[in-house]
Amino acid sequence: MDEQEARRRFAEGRVARMATVGSDGAPHLVPIVFALDGDDVLSIVDAKPKRGPELKRLRNIEANPNVALLVDEYREEWERLWWVRADGTGRVEEEGPTRDRAIELLWAKYDQYRTAWSEPVGAAVVISVHRWRWWSLAGPQA
Q1: Which domains does the chain have, with CATH numbers?
Q2: Angstrom distance (rounded) from CA 106 to CA 121
Q3: Alpha-carbon separation of residue 104 from 75, 97, 109 (angstroms)
Q4: Which H, E and C letters describe 47-116, residue by residue?
Q5: Residue 131 vs residue 80, higher pLDDT
């Protein structure tokens, strides 16, 4: 797998695991839905059941903007295993064109965003990717 293939697999992924670190130094890992827009990964706080729109991931990004995202494929046929990690700097966008772009791309990628129960209700998370890393049992690693 080369960088172009790694980015394609990442972009086509349906879920990523997002790792942030809080002001107390504790790691926090959550699954997210996302869209890739160039070197930016976009996600948004939606109406799926949560404790509220003020999520720990948002507070963590504001305290420490370093973020890692992982998309992977696990199969019982281990020759098909792979993962792609995107390391970057996150920011929270409460409103504006970047948040609007996140909504547009997420609605295009996920049918569920076109239903009333999952309308965006909160901020967008924008991760500017600085480094791509990948591994595949079937090919070269970075």
Answers
A1: 3-136 (2.30.110.10)
A2: 13
A3: 32, 10, 9
A4: CCCCCCCCCHHHHHHHHCCEEEEEEEECCCCHHHCEEEEEEEEEEEECCCHHHHHHHHHHHHHCHHHHCH
A5: 131
Q: Is the predicted pLDDT of residue 79 greater than 50, yes or no? A: yes
Q: Which two tokens stand for residue 66?
A: 């370093």
pTM of the model: 0.88
Lowest mean pLDDT among 33-37, 39-43, 45-49, 106-110: 45-49
The sheet with strand 120-136 has its strands ordered as: 27-32, 16-21, 66-73, 82-93, 120-136, 40-46, 35-37
Burial of 93: CB neighbours in 10 Å, binned 0-12, 13-18, 19+: middle
Provide the token pair at 138.
């079937």
Residue 28 has pLDDT above 60, yes or no: yes
Q: Within 10 Å of residue 34's Cβ, how many Cβ atoms?
A: 28
